[in-house]
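Protocol step 6 of 9: fold each sequence in the batch and record its structure tokens directly after the sequence line. For illustration, a two-sequence batch is reproduced in full.

Sequence one:
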Amino acid sequence: MPRAESGDVTTIPHRIARGSASAHRVKRAFDITACLALATVTLPIVIAIAAAIRLDSPGPVLYKARRVGRHGRHFRMLKFRTMVDGAELLLQDCAHLNVATGMVKIPDDPRVTRTGRWLRRFSLDELPQVYNVLAGHMSLVGPRPHDVDELPQSVFDQDRRLAMRPGLTGLWQVSARSNPSLDHRIHYDTKYVNGWSLAMDARILARTVPVIMRGTGGRVQIQNADRATGTGGGGLNFEANGGELTASPSQSAT
């Protein structure tokens, strides 16, 4: 399948996402309207959070993460910084604490700051992503974007999740976010893309509110999860089954 690459942008032809063109236009119009309102209403909260982060620990207020977006294009996803500055360099020291398969989920991560723990509890660290939505990188609802190094390039051509903009919230977040399994994440994100409708978006948004209010958004549930041996999907094999990716431990993984 042909692919054109330029800098941080990888353009991959994907099948058209489910739903009519008019439904997708309504979805985009709602994204813009809702995020403009959200950005206005939450501005005092954003200013207060920024001040708290600067007072709590040295470093930038925002963390810019490289993520894979629609059609495989790379973009910078904005988040409030919840970890100490330079946390990526300390990840190797914490690798033995990772309970996730194929991604990083560390309960009581020692790199997280005091303010960061509170932000994560109520998912407030995600607030800056309303600007990613306004810029067209993301949608309010959609599959969660992967880190650019989280999935191998070889599976992109068959990953139907890339037919839609990644979401600030999604089916995985409201159904199984606490489950530290990449397979669960891929399953729910693919289920969302295959069955997408405006009504589904409305239901997910309605379910997102109580999750945020309960403060359970960033909690990790450990259920005999295999501990990862590294980052970026290390020790895993990825297969595409009818457009749905599955992650399984490689023969060398222990």
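Sequence two, same batch, same settings:
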Amino acid sequence: LYAMPVGIVVKKDLNIKTLDEFAGKRFNFGNRGSGNRAMAEKLFEYKKWTPNDFPTLTELSTKEMGEAFCSNKIDILLEILGHPAQFYEDMISKCNGAIFNFPPADIEGLIKILPYSATQQIPGKMYTDTPDDIQTFGYQAIMFSTSKVHPSTIFNVMNSTFGNLDKFRNVHPALKSITLKKMTDGLTIPLHDGAKRFYAKHGIKPE
């Protein structure tokens, strides 16, 4: 459906430029069972970090970590959302945050252990004091169903949902740039036969 880049927010005055500089800082590891936690675990795996590398390692939800960041109880948080998102704007404009710009070598390394992810960008000027594109990685939000559902049902659901893209784009700012072609980019699971029929109707043959 749309891109969901990994957005790591760090305290601006720490001037963090590399992942190595994360060690020794107060980091939110994410609440158990969350996508943020799963991504943080992969980040730790990639850097071979252990809990001992961090003086504080919290397990907070999105709301809780935002409050902790703004109260200066943590230095680094990780969140995965569609953009633009008010959460990031608040962390930047109200709580002395900056979105971490991943070095290219780290993006490449992380994609190797996360094969369902890809290079992504958070556009510049989307958030306060963020004039340039932020280099990161992430994945696509996907709507999926069991193959047991009849193709006609899936076709009708897609037709009613995505048949009027102009209306659909107004549901959320993250959907503003959505196109049917973009919706087929970066797929990590097979397309349902009903979805194939929908795209064929619109002259799109997903690769």
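Proceed to step 7 once all outputs are recorded. Observation for sequence two: The chain has a mean pLDDT of 91.
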